Amino acid sequence: MKAAAFDYCRADHAQDALRLLTEHGGAAKLMAGSQSLGPMLNLRLARPAHIIDVSNCADLRQVALLDHVIRVGACVTHAEIEDGVFEPLRGHLLQQVAARIAYRAVRNRGTIGGSLAHADPAADWVLACMAMNANIEITSTKIVRKLPMREFMLAAYTTALADDEIITAIEFPLISEQTRWGYYKFCRKTGEFAEASCAVLIDPVARVSRVVVGALDGPPGDLPVIAHNIARNGLASVSFEDIVDALSTIAPNKDLIDRKLYANAVRRSLALALGAVESI
Ligand SMILES: Cc1cc2nc3c(=O)[nH]c(=O)nc-3n(C[C@H](O)[C@H](O)[C@H](O)COP(=O)(O)OP(=O)(O)OC[C@H]3O[C@@H](n4cnc5c(N)ncnc54)[C@H](O)[C@@H]3O)c2cc1C
Q: Residue 257 burial by CB count (10 A; 0-12/13-18/19+): exposed, middle or buried?
């Protein structure tokens, strides 16, 4: 099947895109890397009358180190992050996350902003942004607002974005050099979305510990008790059964086999974060 007919226009700046969005009301859709929108158009799950291509908006393709955050433009691609094209991201944890998304052809075009706007529960950026406590910068012709990731994604494929708003950037708080990070995703073969995933961040300087599980039915879910115990008492203080039990609060509809899959993702991320293994 091919996409239904639509008008195509290309924006050069975020303000162009916002003007066109306002002009066309709900009949327009933004296109960034088209890695999720393209299939949806071809399957006719989306039939917008107008497509506004934002992939060449120069102001959405920048990365800057600010006072307390790294600001990543919404149209920066997964591959640019993976390759460390932007100085503030060289050596950053985000490089590791980007490198595991799909395969290179998808990463060459797919963008961080597009991924968050699409809000697939199994998406890597959705999970990583939650674990890193990122803020999503959202812009309309009237205001710029910032939402924490945990308030941005409301449900599967549903976000807090209004029709006249676009994601302009994602702000990642700076982390200390002592930060420990573990990220693990189960997928049947390389290049596929996760069936179960987990990100662990322990920053002793900021006194923060998070264990966040992805690829659930909706937004990622926190395991605060596990995070607290691990940060205070180490890996041995939490058993596999403790993790399976804790998962019942964020994955109540999953059967025991699924919960064991998530629990393994948690256990492997914890082991990676705490240096019990270098890679799994
Ligand atoms: C074969 C394949 C495998 C994949 N595997 C993975 C995987 O393992 N992990 C993973 O995380 N992802 C995976 N993806 C998805 C990929 O990461 C996409 O790049 C991403 O989901 C969408 O980004 P995009 O830039 O292509 O957005 P698009 O497809 O262009 O847009 C997606 C949605 O976001 C909206 N949008 C885009 N930019 C903005 C913006 N700035 N502001 C507001 N709304 C916007 C669009 O209107 C559309 O609704 C895979 C995709 C494919 C095709």
A: exposed
Q: Is the pLDDT of residue 93 over 70?
A: yes
Position 147 scores a pLDDT of 98
The model's pLDDT over 121-180, given as tens digits with 9 standing for 90+, comes to: 999 999 999 999 999 999 999 999 999 999 999 999 999 999 999 999 999 999 999 999
The answer to whether 28 and 51 are in contact (CB under 8 A) is: yes
User: Which tens digits make up the pLDDT trace of 26-71?
Assistant: 899 999 999 999 999 999 999 999 999 999 999 999 999 999 999 9
Distance of alpha carbon 238 from alpha carbon 139, whole angstroms = 42
* Torsion sign over Cα 62, 17, 118, 41: negative
Could you tell me if residue 228 is inside a domain?
Answer: yes
- Are 96 and 66 part of one and the same domain? yes
Count CB neighbours of 20 within 10 A: 18
Residue 158 belongs to a domain: yes
Rounded Cα distance between 246 and 255, Å, is 14
Residue 1 lies in a domain: no
What is the Å distance from ligand 1's center to 118 Cα?
A: 6
Question: Could you give the CA distance from residue 42 to residue 264 in angstroms, rounded to a whole number?
Answer: 36
- Cα pseudo-dihedral 122, 77, 12, 32, rounded to 10: -30
What is the β-pairing status of strands 166-173 and 135-139? antiparallel
Ligand 1 — pocket residues by CB below 6 A? 29-37, 54, 74, 101-102, 106, 109-111, 113-115, 117-118, 123-125, 161, 166-167, 191, 193
- The model's pTM is 0.96
How confident is the model at residue 60, as a pLDDT? 98
